[in-house]
Amino acid sequence: MGNRGQKRPESVEELPADKRACSSLEFRPSSSSNSPGQTHTNSPNLAPESQDGGHDGGEMDTSSSASGSVRSEEAEKDSAYGSCDSDDLADGELRFNRDILRDFQRRRSSGDQAKFKKILVTLTEADEVDVSGVLAALTELCEVLSFCTESSLSSLTVDSLAPVLVKHAKHESNPDIMLLAIRAITYLCDVFPRSSGLLSRHGVVPALCERLMAIEYLDVAEQCLQALEKISRDQPLACLQSGAIMAVLNYIDFFSTTVQRVALSTVVNICKKLPSECTAPFMLAVPSLCNLLQYEDRQGLIGSLVKLASGSVVAVRTLFELNISSILKDILSTYDLSHGIPSVNMVDGHCNQVCEVLKLLNALLPTSARDQDVQMVLDKESFLANQPDLLQKFGNDILPILMQVVSSGANLYVCYGCLSIINKLVYFSKSDNLLELLNNTNISSFLAGVFTRKEHHVLIIALQIVETLLQKLSDTFSNSFIKEGVFFAVDALLTPEKCSQLKFPVLSGTHFSIDSNQRHAAKEVFRCLCYAFDNDQFSSASEMENCKLEKDSVHNLAKHIRTKYLTTELLNSEKGLTDILQKLRTFSAALTDLVDMSLHDDTSAQHEEKYYCMLHQIITILNGKEPISTFEFIESGIVKSLVNYLSNGLYMREKVGSQGVSSHYDNVEKRFEVFGGLLLSLSEPLSEDLPLSVLIQKLQHALSSVENFPVILSHASKQRNSFATVPNGRCVSHPCLKVRFTKEEVETSLYDYSEDVLTVDPFSSLDAIEGFLWRKVSIKRTEPTNSVFQASHDMKGPIFQGPLDAGSQGKSPDLMESESMSSEFPEEDKDSSQSTPESASNLREMTPGEATSSGETQTVSAEQEQHVSSEAGVKMKTQCPESCSGEDASVKLLFYLEGQQLNRELTMYQAIIQQQIEAEHEIIPSGKLWGQVHTLTYRAAVEPKQTHPQECLQNSPVSAKVGTHLQQAPFFSNIFVPELVAELDKSGPTYDILFLLKSLEGMNKFKFHLMSRERTKAFAEGRIDNLDNLKVAVPVIPENEFVNSKLTEKLEQQMRDPLAVSIGGMPLWCNQLMALYPFLFGFEARCKYFRLAAFGPLQAQPHSSFHNTSGAPSDRRHNAGSLPRKKFLVCRDRILDSAAQMMNLHACQKVVLEVEYNEEVGTGLGPTLEFYTLVCHEFQKTGLGMWREDYTSSTSCKSLQAGSGMVVSPSGLFPRPWSSTLSTSNGIEFSDVTKQFVLLGQVVAKALQDGRVLDLPFSKAFYKLAILGQELSVYDIQSFDPELGRVLLEFQALIDRKRYLETVCGEKSTFDVDMCFRNTKIEDLYLDFTLPGYPEYVLTSGSDHKMVTMTNLEEYVSLLVDTTINAGISRQVEAFRSGFNQVFPIKHLQIFTEEELEKLLCGERDSWACNGLLDHIKFDHGYTASSPPIINLLEIVQEFDHEQRRAFLQFVTGAPRLPPGGLASLNPKLTIVRKHCSKWADADLPSVMTCANYLKLPPYSSKERMKEKLLYAITEGQGSFHLS
């Protein structure tokens, strides 16, 4: 084999984008876009050394000119909106230009034909000796074909060329002739598609297959694959008969990934028209295809196997013997069963690999239908009957994963497909095998959950499974069907009146929208589920409209099951209940009665002991050995009773006044303490799980069974571009709603505006629509100022919002734009965001912003308008009315659709969808939604009654906690939300489950508070004598236990929908649950939702997360890749000044910032990450007066950080208190401190927006206060100052003991001896009323407050706590939030926890796991995983300490921390290549390209030498970017 046969490296186009960015090379696109054969002229040994841009590369340059494909995509985007622009050319000019073009093409075609004749003569007459002449002719032919058009060729010309090219393709002695001839064949098929048939007649396919079966030259083989792929499109049968399938698969592992895709595409093309009688040639390739299914890129292969299994029993047998079920199980396991694993890729937007797998599984099993191919069905049945072991293995692999997919929130079609396969498995399995198959699965509970679906096709399959199980294993499943509620569900189908008596729901549904206008593109979307997984390719569209189910099929089958298997006793409401259910019902009723009793008398304290005993018994039952089914758990009513107990009867009250909250607040706290103490302690010594974990698991199963949140999908394969007249008049990338605005008949104060049908942006709020319409219909024609919009965009004041406030739907009557257009259209200036509705109508006439360095138009903070107008339904009714702000926030118009007033918190799209959901429409027809004209009736709104802010505050339950920071946890007063989720049935169990889950999540979050309070109380009462016993060991309950995988998958489905261009394009429940119960959704899903809500779809797409199997979010560096970029020149000597200048110019702009250092050549990702790291380090300098320091830290820690001038704060950064009476301290101006906090907020927000990793060790308390907007208490102080927090809690314990003894004894002198702090009187501590560590900060003035005594200790503690977490830092926190809000609203981050925020902003705290290094590092260009230098490097890295690892990471990537997800999420992947040294390798140093995470390592002679050079490079090589 010659040197051509050596395996070639991956083509340049496969290198990471940033790696290509380092090179200034551009590759000219050819007519064959992915032809590896054409890249052979480029140096195959092109090493990254030749691509260096120094320490880093020019990422910016490549972003605008990396490849032709990027430019072509931009051109397509531009042309997509051409319909919005007028054409200035006159018709005469157009005709003239067309005539010129036609004449040019005619002359060019005649010239090409002459060239073809000349080349044909040369090739025909040339003999075998004239090699150079043949090569010259073939080269010229390839050049002509590269640029000619179809009109230049004719069938006669091609027919003449075909035999000559086939002849030279078989040339054995000269590989160059073969290569050029096959390339000419490829080009010919490209230019003249009809040439495939002519070439096939002359034997081109066997010739190409012959070259592939015995590969001598790799470039020739790659070109053969390209040619076969072209020919297989039009001549699949000829390819099949010539053995092309085996030929292209024979050496597929030998080729690069790009060429492998070409080979697979060829197989798919052949299989598309595979005749059932011609499967023999295909059978030889089945093992290879099964092996290829294990690869990540399997698109199209599964469909080929589906066709094969549908038409051949031999194929079915072969697939079973090849253990196909194990492979398909692995594919299905990626269907987001775990909320951390990204879902499978969508194929063409309408059908995913899961559907293809389900089709294959369906095809492998016989069908019950006998109207198609009876013999085929009988043959499959006979095969499975004779091979029960194969069916058993198949079931063991597939059944559990199918049940998991259905339970995870699969859409209706996937659910139906899974159930169809389960039904077949149950039907064709023998009784003994079936019992073994179902032994490890809870099929009864699974079926009970299926019966909550409303779709008849799903119900009929569930009933068929129930009937089969009862026929084969009646004794086994009768009891479990009772326990799990299956029999009750079947009975409820026949007697709906019983449905109302059950707490467990028997019907629910998943709405599924089918766009009839897209039906030609979405071939897999059927009108009836009967045909969803039908492998009959000849069913007509009219047949698919007719359902195969009879009208009363569900009723009849349910009646048959009840008559045959359900006795009268079994259906009796009392006798049919299990013992455990009756026992739980008894406790539930007793607990409810006790709560009611305590509400109506003043002896509630007397009931506490009864509460404790009853709760203990309930927890013992729930945590006991006897299993409790989901049906029993819900039906017992125990959830509602617990909720009623925890809320002290306040739950579900319409209004809760201040008096109500005040009178019940203490009881609520006591009950949380009691209940929390029981749940957070092990009920049995040998028990592994805490009762809290057990209860959470039961609630999660219950929620998954009863929730009824609809998934509404558009299933449009491609979005239409349209023009939205309302509200702003601009092009959008999604369909618009057609709306006619009609004045209400009795309305006399407004004009009628019903002449025209207007196009409305579906994701605009009703406030935005009002802004457009008001100036059209208002008789007074006044232009009021939109103060609410201005207030929501005021970035100069504090924005303190409770944890339940997740933002407003928006009060923007003048600005609304789809986020997807943020980079296509110029944004308004910030001033224009406060314009009147009149100015809003002329937005499209505004001047574009300044041009960026990449030549694109600058976009000015699209989220400034989006945050206000597109966050539909997120604002809950937990805050004061808008009038409380003191602004003129009156509503001017009320809107009605079909007689129902629309909720102003919704977008137009959500309002229509919500109305259809409430009308219980089974399937929402998308075509009708966009096609019909919606009539919106409007009338003038009545002026609202003004409410004073003080009044609102008094009526708010939050007022009970204002100014109190000592002990109260803010959570308790925030759980009583009058309205949780608007579309829920308040009497249903979902409401109760959500409330209890929220209570338990708060209990888990504040468990340290609760347990500390209990210990303090015990000390006060004398049950604990030693202050050391106040310490608590907090049990760990992972936050992911609160994640509901089913709801997470539903949200993922909704966000994958093409219409999810904003959160206003999703059903209302998505926004409401995310606002109130974010813990229900996985971290990955919340990250996607956050980016969609805050930045729009351009930055919400996780480009690489679909291939990330680590369960962690993918690297955020490329999320902003579609936005324009702005390069900024900074000076290393003045980092903070440069950062301030950068943020002043660009903080409010939606552009990606990239850094270039003054007098350095490097630019791009690496320098930018290093800039943010340097800024973070500057913010931690001691002389800024920003942070409090820990003066109790260890000497080694203090000396290490003091040497670098950094603040010593082992527990994380927290603001230093500043007195309001001091403007200067130690030469530091407080005004400068607030400016630094504003800048810090801007930097943090911009880094998050651009996807940059920060190196800022904020404390958990800072995240909680400054970003989440939650109040702190004395228990939070320990998280950032452990010593101060501990002392304050001990002081508080002394105060509580004093108060308790005063209450009990009544005389002060009797307990003086107990009032010592660690055997020392308070007076002897010589504490004064100044802040510890800050003697200039005086807590209070006056002669009575010079020294701390036992008398004023309570006041001292109160002032100290207030100063530390409130009064002394409020202005700094306010400044930070104001700076942050200039980039995007900080409220979008309230869906995360403190730990998640740290991960989101600062990446992974731990650098990497040593055992996973090999899995996440790529070795190339001379190195493999087994190369001695690589082995040495990995050992050295594992020996590094923490600081050395940080330095190594910063040297290679530009940042000392890894992104969320660690090394697995690093993008581009960390790559290590061999560095070719001009002299002695040991004398050279490692070098890097940080833009591509690329380490060039010399092959050092020893491990010691490598470690020496590496440490020198990572320590001395920091701080500059130059040529390497």
If you had to describe this structure to a student in words, what would you say it looks like?
By secondary structure, the protein is mostly helical. The chain has 7 domains: 91-275, Leucine-rich Repeat Variant (Alpha Horseshoe), CATH 1.25.10; 287-422, no CATH class; 580-709 and 960-1040, no CATH class; 722-793 and 809-851 and 883-952, no CATH class; 1043-1107, no CATH class; 1180-1402, no CATH class; 1410-1516, 2-Layer Sandwich (Hect, E3 ligase catalytic fold), CATH 3.30.2410.10. Helix content is 48%, strand content 5%. It has 62 helices and 22 strands. Strand 15 (1316-1317) and strand 16 (1320-1321) form a beta hairpin. Helix 25 runs parallel beside helix 29 (553-565), helix 36 runs antiparallel to helix 45 and helix 46 packs across helix 56 (1282-1304). It is globular and about 120 Å long. The two termini are 38 Å apart. Mean pLDDT is 75; it is low at 1-90, 336-351, 507-526, 781-888, 947-965, 1101-1121 and 1194-1200.
Keywords:
1524 residues, mainly alpha, Leucine-rich Repeat Variant, 22 strands, 5% strand, globular, disordered N terminus
